[in-house]
Write a structure and sequence with these properties.
By secondary structure, the protein is an alpha/beta fold. The chain contains 12 helices and 21 strands. A 4-stranded parallel sheet has the order 1-4-7-10, with no helix packed on it. α11 links the parallel β19 and β20. α4 packs parallel to α12. The N and C termini lie far apart (about 70 Å).
């Protein structure tokens, strides 16, 4: 049951929104002088709106659109970035929970069912059913209000300091392992080369070489069947295919992985056929903008195509990759396959049934690329 202040607020809002001067005056007196908040009657607010602690000291710009069953708490600001009347205010979709001391600023959308944690400063789109905290706001997970305790603890000093230092030490250690191979890799992969990879490995190479991101296959991965389809019609998928987004993957493993990941991430559908798991992205908008921008940079005359035995990969997938008409290609696998020229067997992973992480074992992959050149 809603509190009395909420009931009175909603009753007066219905009268004042689009109503006459008398009801607007009564509404303004109640909100500004009794509740102590500034929520103009012009603001579009859906049914089931609820305020806690009078939404005291909260300010909502009149251009804001608030969906159904949204809850608002004290000391919160929701509005446009500046004083320009042309600036658009946020859209708050249905079932959103907004904590105290929150700032939601700009032409952004807070997705259905999202939770905005106390003190968050939100200046980018928030995907549906996610939890965001911090300044700037970061996504915790894709499990609605079920926060990941381990991740929350990792944000708290001094644990956060320890984790940052540990990561820096590990990054330096891994860099030292692959450092010896980078000069030769640089000779083979020039700045005008576009690297197409089935996972994040393209990003590892480009970061080490200081290259511009001239491929969209960064910070993401494909399941093996989708990657073969993607490569089979590469020019179409990079120049014509439309990128849409899915609520769920058609692969149970994909849904399981996202549920366990530290944050929610988008799952795309390219050309209505190829799933793209945007592992290191936080919003659909970010994923789409970077995909299209980087896809336009691809140099089809100088490609280096890389596959890895991961993500439900089969021997048939590896053989299909080998038949693709790319001159410069390599497929890292844990299997020896006859008459498969592009297959690069790595004995280290033979007992695992697939190859290891693209970043953790980059030195091994670099060594084999050089050996095969």
């Amino acid at each position: 049951m809603k509190n009395k202040k909420t009931i009175i607020f909603n009753a007066l809002y219905k009268r004042a929104h689009g109503g006459g001067i008398i009801w607007n005056t009564i509404y303004k007196l109640y909100t500004e002088y009794i509740l102590g908040c500034d929520i103009p009657a012009l603001t579009q607010i859906g049914e089931g709106f609820e305020i806690f602690h009078s939404a005291h000291a909260s300010v909502v710009s009149p251009g804001t659109i608030i969906g159904k069953n949204v809850s608002l708490r004290q000391n919160t600001t929701i509005g446009a970035k500046g004083f320009d009347s042309a600036e658009k205010s946020p859209i708050i979709e249905d079932e959103v929970t907004i904590g105290p001391n929150v700032c939601i600023i700009g032409n952004i959308t807070i997705g259905r069912g999202a939770t905005i944690g106390a003190g968050a400063v939100v200046v980018k789109d928030v995907p549906p059913n996610t939890v965001v905290v911090g300044n700037p706001a970061k996504i915790l997970n894709g499990g609605g209000k079920r926060l990941r305790l381990k991740y929350i603890i990792s944000l708290t000093p001094p644990i956060s300091w320890y984790l940052v230092i540990r990561k820096q030490i590990n990054d330096k250690r891994l860099y030292q392992l692959r450092k010896q191979y980078i000069p030769d890799i640089r000779k083979m992969i020039t700045p005008d080369t576009s690297i197409i990879s089935s996972n994040c490995f393209a990003g590892r190479i480009m970061q080490d070489l200081g290259m511009q991101y001239n491929t969209p296959t960064l910070g993401l991965y494909f399941f093996a069947d989708d990657y073969i389809e993607f490569l089979s019609h590469l020019k179409y998928y990079l120049t014509e295919a439309k990128l849409e987004f899915l609520d769920q993957s058609r692969y149970p493993l994909g849904n399981e992985r996202r549920a366990k990941w530290t944050h929610w991430y988008p799952i795309g559908l390219l050309g209505g056929k190829v799933e793209v798991q945007f592992l290191h992205y936080h919003t659909e908008k970010e994923a789409a903008e970077k995909w299209y921008r980087r896809a336009r940079r691809v140099n089809f005359d100088k490609l280096f195509v890389i596959g890895m035995e991961q993500n439900l990969c089969t021997v048939d997938n590896i053989k299909a990759f080998d038949k693709l008409p790319f001159e410069n290609k390599i497929f890292f696998s844990s299997k020896q396959i006859d008459n498969c020229k592009s297959n690069c067997y790595l004995e280290k992973f033979a007992e695992h049934g697939e190859v290891g992480d693209a970043y953790r074992w980059a030195d091994i992959f670099y060594r084999e690329i050089i050996r095969r050149n």
